Structure formats: C-alpha cells, structure tokens
Amino acid sequence: MAKCRNPGPWRSRRPTPSRQHVRAALEPGTIRVKDIWRAPVSLAPEHTRTDVWPGHPQPLGARFRVGPDGTEGTNFALWAGGAEAVEVCLFDEEGRETRCHLEELTHEIWHGFLPGVRPGQRYGYRVHGPWDPFAGARWNPAKLLLDPYARAVDGEFALPDEVYGHHRHHQPPELADTVRDDHDSAPFVPKGVVVHDTDTWVDDRRPKTPWADSVIYELHVRGFTMRHPGIPPELRGTYAGLGHPAAVEHLVQLGVTAVELLPVHQFAHEDHLLRRGLVNYWGYNSIGYFAPHAAYSASGTRGQQVGEFKNMVRALHQAGIEVILDVVYNHTAEAGEGGPTLSLRGIANPGYYRLAEDPRHYTDYTGCGNTLHVVQPQVLRLITDSLRYWVQEMGVDGFRFDLAAALARSFHDVDMLSPFLAVIAQDPVLRRVKLIAEPWDVGDGGYQVGAFPPLWTEWNDRYRDTVRDYWRGALPDVRDLGYRLSGSSDLYAWGGRRPYASVNFITAHDGFTLRDLVSYEHKHNEANGEDNRDGTDDNRSWNCGVEGETDDPAINALRRRQLRNMLTTLLLSTGVPMLVAGDEFGRTQGGNNNGYCQDNEVGWVDWSLPDDPTWRPLLDLTRRLIRMRREHPVLRRRAFFSGRRQAPAGIRDLGWFTADGKEMTEEDWYAPSRTVAMYLSGRDIPQRDEKGRPVTDVSFLAVLHAGDQPLDFPLPGPPWGSVYRLLLDTSRERQDVAPDSTHLGGTILRVPERSVLLLRVEPADPEIRAGA
C-alpha cells in the first residue's frame, strides 16, 4: 500500500520559471545561467590514473575478474546515456581520491578495466554533461555518484548541502533547483565497494514451498531482532541476528513457511527526518538495488555484508523457511527536483526517471517525488538484473513489489501488457520465483487489485478491509465476507489464476498492529513529528469502548477475544495468509499507525510478550491454527470452490448457512447479518497427490458470529453431517477441548457472542464416513 513517508509539501502550482526568469533572479556575483549549464567543474583529485584498459561493456557494474595476460583487476561499466565523460573515482583508507577516465563508449555504456583493483576497493563515479534543468539535464561532476550496480556500500547517507546538485538555499527558493552547486560531495557520501562475485548460489537447498501451502511472516530485520534475549547483543539488528538459532527457532515453532523482509536494499534517510532526529526505519527509500543495506551487517561494510546476508538465507533455508524481499523499484531516494544528487539523477536523469511535460519536474506516481521510467530499456534492465542477482547469487526465493502498479505503467496508464510484466513472464529465472504485487500506486487509475496476470499473487486489501469491518460490526451484509473467506474468486477466478493469487492479510507494517486495531480508533502519531497529520485515517478499527490501554479487565478480555477472532478468520480463509511479526503475541505500537520513522521500542518487537501469561495463549492459538492448516488440505485449496452439489451425498464442496442453520439463499447474502457459517467439504477437493490419487480430508464447519449476544445455532443435519466435534472456540482464552464438545447434527449449538467456533464434521452416510 502507499507508504505514508511524508515526502514534504507538494510543489508549487505557480507557473514554471523560464531561463529568463532565472537569469533575472540570480543574485549579484552568482554564476551566469549560460555558464551554469555547461561550465566545467575544476576539482583537484589527489591523483589521476592513466593505466585504464578498454575492458568490456558487459556486465554492468564493478566486477572483479582476470584480465589480459592473467592480470587481476576490476572491470567498470556504467550506462550513462547522454553523458559527455565518465570518471571512476577510487578512494584509499584516508579518503584520498584517484580518478580514472573511462575512454571506451559502447552503446551508451562507458567502460574500462583497472588492473590491480581488488575486492574491498571503494569507488564512485563522476559523470560530466550539460546542466539544463529545463530540459531535464542535471549532470554535475562535482557530485560523487553511487554505482547503480554496486554490490556493497560503505558509509552512511547524510544530506548536507554538498550532496545536492543545485544551490539548495538559493533565493527565490522556487528557482533553487535550476542553479548548479559546484561543491564536492565526495567527503559526504558513501562509496560503492568492489566485491568478489560468485555468480551462482551454491551449498543450499531451497524449500520451494508451493504457493497454496505458504504462510508468510512479514518482518523487519532490525526490528525483529533488536530486543530478542536469545540473540547475542552484538548480532541484534543484523542479518546474522535473523539467521541466529534463537530467531529461527521462533519461526519454526510458529510454523510459517516464508519471511517477507521489509526493504534490505541499500537505502537513504530523508532530509526532513534527519532534521527531526529521526530516520527512515522501514527503508522504502532505496538507492542501491544490488547492495544489502550496510547498517544491518554485524561483520563489516567492505563487502562482508554480502556474505552475512547469504549466511542468513542459508540458515533460514535449512529450517525450511523461504526468504521473500520487499523491493522498491518504483522510485529512489533522490526524491523530486529539490532532492539530493546521489546516483541516477547525476548519471542520466532523463534516461532513468519519468519526467513531466515540463522536464524540469518529475512525474510522481509514488508520492515520494519521482518514479522510475520502467519503459526505458536501461531501467528495465537495471530492475531485472537486480532481481536475477538476488535470486541467483544471494539465494532469495521471491519478491513483494512495493507500489507495483507504478512498474506496470506504460507511458501513462497502468498496462497489464507493459514491458515490465512481459519481461518477468518470459524470464527463465524470475518466472519461477514467488512474485507478489502491491497492486496499486498513488496515480490516476493506480488501484489494480485483481488485475495482475497469472504468475502473480497480490496483497488483497479487500480482504483486510472486509474482515476488519465484519468484526467491528460495520458490514451491511455478508456478501463480501463470503468472497474473502473462500479465496476471492470475484477478483482472481480468471486467466487460470488460483485462490493463492490472494495474499490475505488483516495487518501489515503500514497501519495499526493487530492489538492496536482493537485498542485504538484514532491514530496517535505525534512521535513522528508531523502533528499527527501523517498516516491513514481509514483504520476500520474498534477500541472496544476505551481509547488506548486500560486496566478494565472486561475490555481487555474482549480485545483479546477480538484478536483471536481475526487470527482464526485469517488462518481458516482460502488463500495465502500473511502475519506481521509480533501480532501473534500482542505487539503494540501505542496507536502509531505509521511507524516508518520509529527505529526504537515503538518499531521493535517486544520479546517479553511471549512469556507473559496474558499473551502466551494467543501465541499458542496461532501455532495451533498454522499447524492445523498445514495438516488439512481442505484449508489450503489449490482450486476455487464450485459450489455445486457433489455425488454421492449431494452436498456442496462449499456450503453457507444463516444464523438459523439454513442454507443461504440469494436474498440472504443481501440481508443484514452478524453471523455466517461456512462448511468446507474435505471429500470434494479437486486435486491429486504426486501419484495421481485423489486428495481427501475431513470436513469442517466454521461459525463466525460477530453479534454482541450469544446465538443458538442449529447444526446442519444429514446429508451435511451426523456428528460435530468442537475443535476451537475463540471465546475461551485457552483452547482446551471440553469433554462435552461432541454435538449431533440437527441439534442446537450455543455460540458465544463475538466468537468463532470450528467443528470437525463426521459424514452422515456411513460409507462416506468410512472413506473420509
């Protein structure tokens, strides 16, 4: 979903100044505009190196290799369409710079081989070209640029004035981005690091969990590990911490099959956050699409982060857990025209970004100031090269694409035949991994839930909103709930897509935690420093009568019951469930629904909660539900329900019942109701095992009752079932099955208020019962 990253005020709607306006506004003594656009920058390097061999234009980036006559060195290759010259800049331990002019140009790729340059070498680029913001040209060789293909990054991104390509404080401010700044940025920006690429992922077995069997667990590398008592302090907040046995043990015991990591590409912090003493904690501000974020490395930042990341992946794979990366290819950390010059803007601004009709400005479909121009071949190549790198060399198993609709835009509109989607569909590496779309962006026509083609799964926000509304009593009827519980066939039953095209979630990193969803009706984001303006107001939450934490035992008991209701609903629904780290034991952010800048206890998982007697039962319930899902194929179907009556008993593979125990009619779906019962037939599963034998299972009846009074529910009799055994009752803090939990079909079952009951069904026909 669109991140509430507060990119700052929207740019002025005043007419765009012309070059003449800029000339008139320049202060006395300022460089003339006609000189600014093409004036050479004279920076005195410590040394200029002349032994630059031609090298090769492929592959892009800095690749250590053996060159002519067996000489070891590094080949540098950079696509910089429209540039007039490119220099590779090498930095020693004291920060002294050596410049190397790349003389070779092949298909707009500048390249050269530097003998003797080995892994660990820090480097950047200076790219020369015209300065003409009105034409979208923003070359400025005073700015050291990060290689878009850098495998590792050393150093932190701060944002002093020197890293901006323009005079940031020029008056009047609306002209500032048009006036070039010639201060050297090299002392103030991180450097790329040459690493020793292995080219292949070895010594590992990928879990390759089928989509239908997947349970995804969204987590933040730093936030998940920072307070874990079983992880050594020096490893907390790092890849090594996530790969530590203490962290892996929790994931295994919980039963999830995949972790979805919030962004781990190298990212930068926004200026408005740094000025408030905050950082971009979530990391949706990428600047290096090949480099693991260096701050998450316990072993070093001169290439060691690459090996540490791989070891983390291996540890998770050995435990049977896949690794999915949340990736941000829709925009970069360079923001709009007033943002810093860190990489792509200074390499070839018109070639990498979508520029507006007035090319001085950017087209912004992301809410973050810029949008990558994925229609351009070099941008498409950058993204697909990055994806393949993370699969083939870093071992990851899939990707969740932030604001994926922005990637699917052709020149303006979202296009499901766009170059990006077409390339992914035919790529022999990428079409085999898990692909998850966040199917919207912030531009016109950007909401595309249900529209992505086969191969793709999607975050299903319709599921989120419906389940939240049902349990807070805000659904006018149960039509939408029926679709969401059964796999959202209204969205995904086309083009050969399956129920697992829907990633079902109730909470995500963006918004309230599950506990806060039942504790707050309003956001409380004051700690973000934006006067509580940031974050969504559409929370669809219910505080159960009191805003925030309370000592009232009745309200707290109701809140915990609501948590059990929502977790049970999620894990019984057809589709792929996604949990958020800590929701399984009541993590809270104190009502902050936009913790993107909270790198502290607000954003970190509280590991004291699993041992708290108040919250331990919720963790036990979550584990039990995931285990039940794993054991019963009827709960993780690979095909949509037909709803037709099946022989020999004449029951449906999916049955729906009203609060009075009758099969639902068309009219019932449109009637107001706080109760729905769902019958899942384990005999009518349209799939076969690896040897071609039919897959069968037990049948289940789930009664979801959101009313505030108990309900007397008549259990469906023959042919639906003769005996029902109660397995789960969310009205109970602990889920021990009571001795009298067996009920005959046709009898009345007392359903507590606001609860889910799950019952195992014994078939009415003895022959069917024997085969079940």
Keywords, separated by commas or semicolons:
772 residues, alpha/beta, Immunoglobulin-like, eight-stranded parallel beta barrel, six-stranded mixed β-sheet, 32 strands, 19% strand, elongated, disordered C terminus
Describe the structure.
With 772 residues, this protein is of the alpha/beta class. Among the domains are: 61-194, Immunoglobulin-like, CATH 2.60.40.10; 640-769, Golgi alpha-mannosidase II (Immunoglobulin-like, Sandwich). Helices cover 21% and strands 19% of the residues. It has 19 helices and 32 strands. The strands form eight sheets. It has an eight-stranded parallel beta barrel with strand order 13-14-17-18-19-20-21-22. Helix 12 (461-471) crosses helix 13 (479-485). The protein is elongated. 51% of the residues are buried.
Short structural description:
This protein is an alpha/beta fold.
Class computed from helices, strands and strand pairing = alpha/beta
Classified by CATH, the class of the domain at 61-194 is Mainly Beta
Q: Could you say which overall geometry the principal axes of the C-alpha atoms support?
A: elongated
Number of distinct helices: 19
Termini separation comes to 42 Å
Radius of gyration: 29 Å
CATH superfamily of the domain at 61-194: Immunoglobulins
Q: Percent of residues in helical segments?
A: 10-25%
CATH architecture call of the domain at 61-194: Sandwich
CATH fold-level name of the domain at 61-194: Immunoglobulin-like
**Kindly state the mean pLDDT as a whole number?**
92
Strand order of the largest sheet: 13-14-17-18-19-20-21-22
Give the low-pLDDT segments.
1-42, 767-772
Sheet with the most strands, sense and barrel status = 8 strands, parallel, barrel
How large is the share of residues in beta strands? 15-25%
* Beta strands, count: 32
